[in-house]
Amino acid sequence: MSSVGIIANPRAGKDIRRLVAHGSVLDTQEKVYIVRRAVLGLEGAGVDEIVFFPDPASIGPKALSGIEGNRKARIRMLEMSVYDEAADSTRAAALMRDQGVACVIVLGGDGTNRVVTKGCDAMPLVPLSTGTNNAFPRFVESTLAGMAAGYYAARGLSADEFSFPTKRLNLYRNGSFDDVALIDVAVCDYQFVGARALWEVGRLKQLFLTQGQPTNIGMASVGGMLDPVRPDESAGLCLQLGDGGRAVTAAIAPGLVTAVGVQSHTRLHIGDRAPVTFSPSILALDGEREIPIAADEAWEVELSWDGPRVLDIARIMDAVREG
Prior knowledge:
This protein has 323 residues and is an alpha+beta fold. Helices cover 27% and strands 33% of the residues. The chain has two domains: 3-165 and 308-322, Rossmann fold (3-Layer(aba) Sandwich); 168-304, Tumour Suppressor Smad4 (Sandwich). It contains nine helices and 17 strands. It has a six-stranded antiparallel sheet. A five-stranded parallel sheet has the order 3-2-1-4-5, sandwiched between helices. The chain is elongated, with a radius of gyration of 20 Å.
């Protein structure tokens, strides 16, 4: 049975950066419409089963309620406890992986995809942008995303041929693996996590990036305006931030353009580990403050190609067209 999962984060795109910057809020109803179109795309491609994460806002059931008369695929809700926390998405991805789901459509930003990645292993993702920072997910119509995911699952296409690898940053505490980020790790001089979203660049001391392009929104834009690194390039960046260096003007959030002082920067190569040089501090992973660092801890950040595989929508649709 061909099976595709859908994980929609109801909180994505609603953090405090929407207040301190000028971003629009992608409300739950719009996410319902996005999921509904993805479902219709999946069914049009002939997928047998669609598996939903039972999110607290009931995005899945609401999406299905508008197309009740057109059911083709079997619909199944994951049987799991939901605590309205980020780890819910990690557990959902792990369950889908264990149950043989071919790929997962993810609605969210960089942070949502990060927590999903922690549970997906080799199961490819179809990341749809609905968050605040969207360097990792793609802006693509969900109907096409659903069709591509459906064809991938229904036709048993090869992940090696029809998906591409992505980079990630591996975090090590005192030599032991601790966590991951897909786009950026920011070291900031806060002493507590507080509101998780990160937007005050004056508090930043160090920045690690898997990619950075001038067209990015978020911390990746700093690297993009200084020394661009493509997503498919075997390189990353480590930036030392603060006064006295080069001022880089970057779009660190929607409508929030500011100058960021960069004292120095170096390129990271795959397998390189660079030390966190400021403590005590807080590590922000993909735009959200997550991990307090004590003064007596040694942290390192490693660049790797261990990120999730992402379906190549254009290549899949070309293959279907060609028969």
